[in-house]
Structure prediction request, 263 residues.
Amino acid sequence: MVEPLESQGEGDMRRLAAFGTAASAGFLVAALLGACGAPAGPGPASPSMPTVPPLTSAPASSGAADTPPTEPPSAPGTPAPTAADWQSLKTPDGKLEFDHPAEWTVRDRGAEAAPGGVFLEVLNAGGKSLATLKTNVAPGAECTQRIPYQVLDLVQVPALAQQGVTPHFIFELRLYPAEKDPTKANVMAYGISSAPKPSGPDACPIFQFFTWPPSGASFGGVYNPFDTTPGNEPFVDTPEAYLETSEYQDIRKMITSLRPAGQ
Prediction:
């Protein structure tokens, strides 16, 4: 659950609340269902992923409202430059590897991993948690509600294709209009998902997992516009602005670089 930070001004709260209102007014676009249709029994919750209701399959729908929204672009229109120095890291079990900026730290949290799995956390130079990678997790849960959504970025990750299904990296939003606190009304996360995209005007809550032997895995994190970690770029208080930052471009490049070791 994203928690509000007391040091953020009321102006930021109003801007994010205004963003949530605009999202509900009609520019919500296509999103991925978070593991809809997967068997029940979610894996342990990651501290860097949003605490939102779990899901499995979406209820059937029909009529004109089922017309799929427009797809988002595969990348922001004016991306910021990515880090100059990168290095590769192989997971402790030797099965996966990914690239990350040399100044970032990868913490092994194997003591908290699922049996037979790995648990890595990536932090920037200021100590801000950017993403976690977990394997051998069960990707199933129940879709208890359907809510407005928006997809901000979407790109395939072909290196992780399994059984004919190519997962996606997705940066997405869920809007909870009844919530008065913007940090709870707008839940935003990025990560890899093997789930299909919804075809209607709403979606299940965010639940990003992808198929990886022997069951599933996750690699992603949350966007918190109220974060005040030292080193954050100024005036980034909406997800659209965050798309154009160097931090987001580096996160996207890192997560989409995930691949089987040796490839």
In short: The longest helix spans residues 10-27.
